[in-house]
Amino acid sequence: MKILFFGDSITDMSRNRDEHADEIFTYGSGYPMLVASALYRKNPLKYQVINRGIGGDRSVDLYARIKRDVWNLKPDVLSILVGINDIWHELNENDGVELDRFEKIYSMMIEDTLKRLPNVKIILCEPFVLKGKCTQQQFEQFQQVYRYAEIVKGLAERYKLYFLPLQEKLNAAAEKFGAEKYLYDGVHPMVAGATLIADAWLKLFERDILREGKAE
What we know:
Elements: E1 2-7, H1 9-12, H2 31-42, E2 48-53, H3 59-64, H4 66-69, E3 77-81, H5 84-93, H6 99-116, E4 121-125, H7 139-142, H8 145-159, E5 162-164, H9 167-177, H10 191-215
Helix pairs in contact: 2-10, 6-8
């Protein structure tokens, strides 16, 4: 089973992007590596985990490279996490992706992928934010991500895909232990944050996708 993680720096986490790099260096240091670790521990022959996150990407950037990084690789499971940069780029560079355009681009990604890979299982991960050193001064604006998250949830419902909620889990963990222990700058995961995401992802994967496969 080929599992592909598609997203921005939260997924990327310093992976080696050289196509000739040894596999061990291609996972990055975030939640895709932790998912790979858990699945390979069970059966390293059954699963292939691929990280195709690129730091700084917005939804429009994912769509621009989806043929190369997703369709050509023909994954069985596609996991998408994007949204925070659609806001962040607007705040820093006046080059973000507005809510209506975000929905259009994301819908195109889904529809075009299902046309080319009709049997792929797609997980849409909820974009998130916490108050941290990169977000606290403009936290009211960063909280627009909640509206983007509603779009993602709505798209999962519209296309009958899997939706992975993350914001409430991060809020609860941050309240208990401190936001910086989970997202070191309000956006990018520390080890605890990456573990929280990976655990939630694996729970959905094992509960829904693997069980559905057994039923078939």
